[in-house]
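Task 17 of the worksheet. Students: predict the tertiary structure of the chain below and write it out as C-alpha cells. Keep your answer in the requested format; marks are given for formatting as well as content.
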Amino acid sequence: MHLQRRDGTPTISARASETTLETDATPSDFTVPRAFDTSLSNNFTAPCAAFFRGLITDSNFNDCHPFSLMLQTSSGFFDASKSYIRITRTLEVTCGVNEDQCTSIMDGLALELTSDANCAVDYANDNPQVLQAYNGLLAYEPLYQASCLRDDDGRYCYANAVTNTTATTDAYPYYLPVGIEMPPGARPTCNKCLQDVMAIFSSFGGNSTQPISQTYNGAAAQIDMGCGPTFVNKTATPLKGAAPGNDVSFIPTITLFVMLFLYFFQ
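Model answer:
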C-alpha cells in the first residue's frame, strides 16, 4: 500500500487501522464543524474580545476551515471525530481549500492577534484561549499537510487514527503541532501513516516559531522506543525558513484536557 498526498505525490506505504465504520451514507444532518463554535471566554481585554468577535465572523478565516483550530476549539469537530463517516466528510472539506492561500491568511491573523491593537496584552499575560488560538493559527500548515494524508484505499490517516478502536492513542501525535506534548507511555500504532505524519512534523520542528519545535523531539524519541530506533527522525530537521510570529508558548485549557480525557478514556 502507498500513501499519497492530496496532490497525488506518493509517499511511504501504510496499513489501514481498524476503525469504527458506519454503513449508512453520510448523515443528512451533517454540517461542517467551525472553529470557536463554543462560547468564548469573557476573560479578554476589550480590544482582544473585539478581535475574536471579528475572527469568528471573518469569511476568509472560516472559508479555510482550519483543521488546526477545529482540533482544539470546535465541539462539532469533537463530535465528528467519533464517526468515521463524519470525520472523513469533515476532512474532505478542510483539505479542499487552497493550502498556500490559507497558510498566508493564518500567518497574517497570528500577527494581527499579537499586535498592540488586538491581543498583545492578553498574549503577554498568557491568556489560555489567546495562546490556544495563536498556536492553532501558526500550526495551520503542518496540520493541513498531516491531516490530508491518505492511504491507497482513499482513507485519511487522521480518520483511521481517531476512530481506531484498538489503539486509542493514535490521534495523539496530531496535537504536537499545537504545542501539546504526547502523554508519557502513549504508544501510537507503528504504521506508515504515523511514520509519514512524523516526517511532516520533523520538517517544521526546526522552526522555533512553530509550537511543534517544543514537542517534536520528545515525541519522536518516545515513538522510536515503541517502534524501533530508526522509525522516525529522533530530532527535527534543520530550519529552512521561519514562519511569522513571536516565541511560542502554550497553556492547554482545562476544557481541552477534559475533552481529550473523555474522548480517549470514556
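Marker's comment: The radius of gyration is 18 Å. The chain has a mean pLDDT of 83.
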